[in-house]
């Protein structure tokens, strides 16, 4: 913090200034040249350098703060500043569900910044590969796992083609929610939730052999629902009506279910929601260099 001063005030300010920063749980450590916040005067400015060594226990401790300069106990000047955390660092307080998770996962979950569940039903998984935002195993532990790429950018081809029942082209691009940072997390969570919901609704595990009698193509959607579920029409005899396997071979088994998951990412009634005003990651929504993809 630097403040302009006049000569008359200089001595009294230098003597009395105590360096009281309103920083929530964050502890300031003053530069050796500025013990206890005592500023150094040079060229008409008072300067005091402080380093914040520990990260707080709460996301709400980040954000806009006010530095106050006192003289003889009276506030003579204030200045706004903002405190951010290193998005990809991992120096947050201990994590009970996934030790070593990045700061974005820990603080965005703690502060309910983008809907990451706190009940153990969502964990960070460093082993997920590039381009894999999240995974879940509905018939297993039902936990949504978010990977390193979940918080970066989200985009996926949204034009799908098929030849089933005269529908030759399905374009979801107009309702897309490509995004990044906290918006990408919301999309990933809603996507995996759809896989969980489909299994909870129909109780059919996709890809199993022998086939469930009500799901002959094995995509986890029963015959009676293939042409109507979520307002999308897919072939009851083809697990991947829209040829999503052209993007990833796994989808040959359950492309019709994957199509619903991608469709539901866009659902305005999604239980998952982003709160940009709570995002204090750097880079992130509120940083002055913002969240341009180039920053990553
Ligand atoms: Zn999926």
Task: Give a verbal description of the structure.
The chain has 296 residues and is an alpha+beta fold. The protein has two domains: 82 residues, no CATH class; 161 residues, no CATH class. The chain has four helices and 16 strands. It has a three-stranded antiparallel sheet with strand order 1-4-3, with no helix packed on it. It has a three-stranded mixed sheet with strand order 9-11-10, covered by helices on one side. A two-stranded antiparallel ribbon has the order 2-5. The two termini are 28 Å apart. The N terminus and C terminus are likely disordered.
Name its key features:
296 residues, alpha+beta, 2 domains, three-stranded antiparallel β-sheet, three-stranded mixed β-sheet, 4 helices, 18% helix, 19% strand, elongated, disordered N terminus, disordered C terminus, binds zinc ion
Number of domains: 2
- CA radius of gyration is 26 Å
What is the averaged pLDDT score?
A: 83
Q: Count every beta strand, where a strand is a DSSP E run of 2 or more residues.
A: 16
Enumerate the strands of the largest sheet in spatial order, edge to edge or round the barrel. Answer: 1-4-3
Taken in chain order, the helices and strands follow as: EHEEEEEEEHEEEEEEEHHE
Q: Which sheet architecture does the biggest sheet show?
A: 3 strands, antiparallel
Number of helices: 4
Q: What coarse outline follows from CA principal-axis ratios? A: elongated
Q: In terms of structural class, how would the helical and strand content be classed? A: alpha+beta
Bound molecules: zinc ion
Name the beta content range.
15-25%
Determine the fraction of residues in helical runs and give it as a percent range.
10-25%
Low-confidence stretches: 3-23, 291-296
Distance between the termini: 28 Å
